Amino acid sequence: ILNVEQSPQSLHVQEGDSTNFTCSFPSSNFYALHWYRWETAKSPEALFVMTLNGDEKKKGRISATLNTKEGYSYLYIKGSQPEDSATYLCAFTSNTGNQFYFGTGTSLTVIP
Amino acid sequence: ETGVTQSPTHLIKTRGQQVTLRCSSQSGHNTVSWYQQALGQGPQFIFQYYREEENGRGNFPPRFSGLQFPNYSSELNVNALELDDSALYLCASSPMGVAGAGELFFGEGSRLTVL
Question: Is the minimum CB–CB distance between A32 and chain B shorter than 8 Å?
Fold first, then answer.
């Protein structure tokens, strides 16, 4: 069983603060690392997929980095807004199968 | 473009009963995956269907079974329900046979409570 860990489990920040979360995953048999955003009562939506060591992706105020050699990815949110409140899931896919291995998520609450 | 839809959204069953959950995949997607999210856990892979065949299975017992139909919609069946089967069941479709670096498109889930 592959273990994907996310930290922190939950986070409360003030509007305008910048924040970041961590996703740790196995460094062997790496294929891709995915980030999803999941708002309450909605469906998870893909933010990024990264496949190469050193990849950096950006979408508006949200960005992510990838280190496959040490097995971690960071998600950054710059100038958090209340609409950023959601659970952020990361998932690892290996080159030996087709399933996504999800972490337990980081729950972000942005306080106006 | 119609997204992934799941039914029912909520249901309550008792131990030993059977349940069927349904999923309509996004238009153009031929692959459907099912995930179970228990309280406090991340989504766990149950199985994937590609062109009506099972194409990978997670660590779930045989009482979890599935089907995919010619229109690529899918069902998840769980027999002999146990209390631990209480969870949110997520369906996700994708345009490829192997998830890999592709994106999963999720439904909003079916929340099952087993009493």
Answer: yes
